[in-house]
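Narrative summary of target 7.
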Amino acid sequence: MPVLASIRGRVLAPEAEANWRLWPDALIRVDDEGRIVEFGPAPADSVIPETWPGAVILPGFVDAHLHYPQTRVLGSASGPLLPWLETTVFPEEARFDQHAYAAAVAEEFCSAMIGQGTTCAAIYSSSHASATDTLFAALDRRGLRATCGPTLMDRAAPAELLVEPDAAIAGLARLHARWQGHDRGRLELAVVPRFALSCTSELMRRAAAFADAHELLVQTHIAENLDEIALTRERFPTSRDYLGVYEDHRLTSARTILAHGIHVDDATWDRIAAADLAIAHCPDSNFFLGSGCMRLRSALERKVRVGLGTDVGAGRTFSLRRVASAAYDASLICGARVEPGQLLWLATRGGAEALGLADRIGRVAPGFDADLVAIDVPERELAGTLDALLFHHDAGPVRATLVRGRVL
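Modeled conformation, tokenized:
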């Protein structure tokens, strides 16, 4: 698809954290590389027609945490976390050593993201470097922006999913050579230890060294489930706590995204903030597996970078609008309400900050890539645009999803 040089319509643009401005009739001009060069009110005498009549245009959604090989087990109710992994997830992920299967699911996965207005994501692949290569190829072909990597695990899972450290690092090296920074940084490799329980100390240390050497994003899980936490304490008795396991293995830096963080005390939140770690808040999957509610306000008050994650397939939707709605519910349960504008920020600009992409995406402004989504919002609901976008589950669909000004 060619770049749309001019985009006209109602635009909802973030201006400062939790603050949004609705432009009733705005014009976005985009250069040949897909970068916004001009944004403001459409001239009264403009002959450019409205691009998507009836839609509101806003920054594309950024999914801070989801699992590609769980696409076809989305909504499989076999939780809580550890039994769910054994019963549902591991058998499904084992199928991704088959190229045809991995390729078919990659297409479904990309279509689902595009259909929900997700323009960028931090993705866990299976443990197979070959499946990760297949996913990268699909993301490239479909025009999406992403950072992803094979899920590293060398213990506590079926043998067909385990990859010992030498092979795991060799696979990362091949993927790095082929995909890192592809298409002016649209695709990037991540280092992805699944969680402490599935990794030996050797694998975590070598993964951290690889990430440091190449300045790569690190993704992993933390404090999602009480049984998981207890087992982690048993496996790593010399570490201070769950976060301490990652600190001891040099996996904590400003390039680290920790998913969930449900059972985290104030002192640990302080350490997360001090180290500038990012958090992927996944309220829908937290509810579905009965894991609990993350205290989002505790992170926001400490200025922790937070993005929202669908966490497909424990999460039951690819829609970050629904996840933002679940985050609102979770904030009420925790007794610390988070405003709708803040939640939409986390689903867009906040996700960009969590992924280290704040200089490229997440705003409608000159100098930023035209990663945008157009969503139908009826005229009668414009006065409550934020509520319509986040809380009206049967409201208008996504009309168009764009990366660098191209409709995907």
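The two ends are 8 Å apart (CA to CA).
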